[in-house]
Design a protein that fits this description.
With 284 residues, the chain is an alpha+beta fold. The chain has two domains: 2-114, Aminopeptidase (3-Layer(aba) Sandwich); 130-277, 3-Layer(aba) Sandwich (Aminopeptidase). 26% of the residues lie in helices and 35% in strands. It has helices spanning 18-27, 36-41, 87-99, 113-120, 151-159, 167-173, 214-226, 242-250, and strands at residues 2-3, 8-12, 48-53, 56-65, 70-78, 103-109, 123-134, 143-145, 179-185, 191-199, 204-211, 232-238, 254-263, 275-277. Strands 1, 2, 3, 4, 5, 6, 7, 8, 9, 10, 11, 12, 13 and 14 form a 14-stranded mixed β-sheet that branches. Strand 11 (204-211), helix 7 (214-226) and strand 12 (232-238) form a beta-alpha-beta unit. It is globular and about 60 Å long.
Length: 284
């Protein structure tokens, strides 16, 4: 807990305050999934911070420490009437103290990447693109529900595409009844890809889609969107994966938002050609 002479209190949020983070994100137009808060919170409850003045929350930030070497941040919002007074910088520094020496990643507003680089020393990695479209998928007989697979098997495949092991998060992420998670299995029954679609405050959101090949990614996108045919859905693609961008364009999806993926120490070496859909702009 930290408090300065201006009576700004920075503290760990309680579990009951998690909906504040989600609601503020919704108001900012970020359209979180309706169960995102409970899934995120389970990973690192000590990384949820609020800035408070006069008993009122005026800022939020989540810094999730996945392990001893990697951290990811999101839900960084300062209430409009408190912007420009140093609240955000103090909250940011508090969160970075939580991250410690870990490599910290985040998806920031694309137009502000120069500010993040100058003030926080973050390194630009690539652009993520959010696409919006109308679901028109078809059932895919080669896909299986991930609930039929051992969690350890799914987590091991996920780890090949993410900078840290996150089985605790994955277990939560695939479990809500408003979520569909599917996997592709090779003939030897090893995982060749998996994807998740979840209900959000507007429509549905895809994330992640990790796949060995573009064809498997296409199958996953078709299978996931078949569950919400005719509804709005969003698909967040890393721009370096041209095949992923092509999947969105082929479906006449519209580019509606973009982020700058940035890191504090180094850009993790990941198989970008196998990362078709970002899991979450708030949690990596």
């Amino acid at each position: 807990m930290e408090q300065d002479s201006d009576e700004l209190l920075i503290r760990i949020a309680t579990k009951d305050e998690v909906p504040v983070f989600i609601e503020w994100a919704r108001q900012e137009g970020w359209n979180p999934g309706i169960h995102d808060g409970e899934c995120h919170y389970a990973v690192d409850p000590d990384g949820w911070f609020v800035a408070e003045t006069g008993g009122e929350i005026v800022g939020t930030l989540v810094v999730t420490n996945y392990d001893s070497i990697f951290s990811f941040g999101g839900f960084y919002i300062i209430r409009e009437d408190n912007r420009g007074h140093g609240t955000g910088w103090k909250l940011w520094n508090h969160g970075m103290n939580h991250a410690g020496e870990r490599n910290f990643g985040g998806d920031g507003v694309y137009e502000m990447q120069d500010k993040y680089a100058k003030n926080a020393g973050l390194i630009y990695a690539y652009r993520n693109i959010r696409w919006q479209g109308i679901a028109g998928g078809r059932g895919q007989p080669d896909l299986v529900p991930v609930g039929e697979l051992p969690l350890s098997m799914l987590a091991a495949y996920d780890r090949e595409h993410f900078p840290a092991e996150r089985s605790r998060f994955i277990e939560k992420w695939i479990s809500p009844d408003t979520t569909l998670a599917l996997a592709y299995l090779h003939p030897d029954e090893s995982i060749g890809g998996y994807g998740v679609i979840r209900r959000s405050y507007e429509g549905n959101k895809i994330g992640p889609i990790f796949a060995d090949t573009p064809d498997i990614a296409e199958s996953l996108l078709e299978g996931l969107t078949e569950s919400v045919v005719g509804e709005v859905f969003f698909f967040d693609t890393p721009e370096p994966n041209a095949a992923a961008v092509g999947m969105a364009r082929k479906r006449d999806m519209t580019e509606v938002f973009e982020t700058a993926r940035m890191y504090s120490a180094n850009v993790p070496v990941l198989p970008m050609h196998e990362i078709f859909g970002v899991t979450s702009f708030e949690l990596g």
